[in-house]
Amino acid sequence: MSRREKGIRTEKIPKLRPHAKRGLFPDPECPEKQAGNAMALIEVDRLSKAYEKIIAVDGISFLIHEKEIFGFLGPNGAGKTTTINMLTGLARPDQGSFRIGGIDCTDDPKAAQHLIGVVPDESNLYPELTGFDNLCFCAALYGMRKRERETGARKLLETFDLTEAGNRKFGGFSKGMKRKLAIAAGIIHNPPILFLDEPTTGIDVASARQIRQILAGLNDSGTTIFLTTHYIEEAERLCHRIAFIVEGRVVRIDTLANLIQPIQDKHVMQLAVSNSKPGLHAILSEAFPHLVFQALPQGVLRVEADKPVQVGPLVRFLEEQGAEVSEARKVRLSLEDVFVRITGIEVDALRKEKEKKGGGA
Amino acid sequence: MKRWIAFWNILIKDMRAYYLKPPNISWGLIFPLAWTGMFFIKSGGGLEDILSLLPGVVAVSILFGTTSMLAVTVTFEKKGRSFDRLLLAPIPLELLMLAKTSGAILFGTVNALIPIILAAFLSDLSQAAWSSAIPAIVLIAATSTFLGLFIAVSVSEVFEAQTFSNFFRFPMIFLCGLFFPIERLPIFLRPIAYVLPLTYGADILHGAFNMRNTMSLLTDFILLVFFCAGLFFISLRNIKRRWIA
Question: Staple B70 to which of A65, A267, B148, B245, CB 3.0 to 4.6 Å?
Answer without folding.
Answer: B148
